[in-house]
Amino acid sequence: MKPQTHRKWAWALRLVAAGIMLQTLIFKFSAAPESVYIFSVVGMEPWGRIFVGVLELIASVLILIPRTTAYGSLIGIGVMTGAVFMHLTRLGIVVQNDSGKLFAMAVIVLAACLTLTFWHRASISGLRNRE
Asked: Which of 63, 75, 78, 115 has the most CB atoms around it within 10 Å of its CB?
């Protein structure tokens, strides 16, 4: 992939991952009934809902800053792995008749974060090639 094309795709993935995570924050931080239901089912209401929201906010900001994209995407991987796991084990794919939209968004963010981490792995302290 050409550097210019790579840069465009990286920005597209950053915007998708951060955009999805940021749009769900209003539901988590305002204690929307859907969020309260989800976190109650998984046994993490209210502290888990707020903690996950804070992690998603941090991840989103770090993803949007080019120097810290890898670190934000690592946090995103952790949070979205937990979300996908909870959907597959406790919540189900469809939650409150959402047609699986929340699950799909978690998978999309997870895929974007995995790709961003791979592309930016050289910037992660400890994963750099030592000479």
From this structure: 63
pLDDT tens, residue by residue, 2-11: 566 778 999 9
Predicted local confidence at residue 131, as pLDDT: 44
Whether omega before 46 lies within 30 degrees of 0, making that bond cis, reads: yes
pLDDT of residue 128: 57
Nearest to 79 by CA among 60, 95, 98: 60
pTM score, whole prediction: 0.92
Contact between 38 and 83 under an 8 Å Cβ cutoff? The reply is no
Give long-range contacts, CB 8 A cutoff, 24+ apart: 68-75: 69/10, 69/14, 69/116, 69/120, 69/123, 70/116, 70/117, 70/120, 70/121, 70/123, 70/124, 71/124, 72/18, 73/17, 73/112, 73/113, 73/114, 73/116, 73/117, 73/120, 74/113, 74/117, 74/124
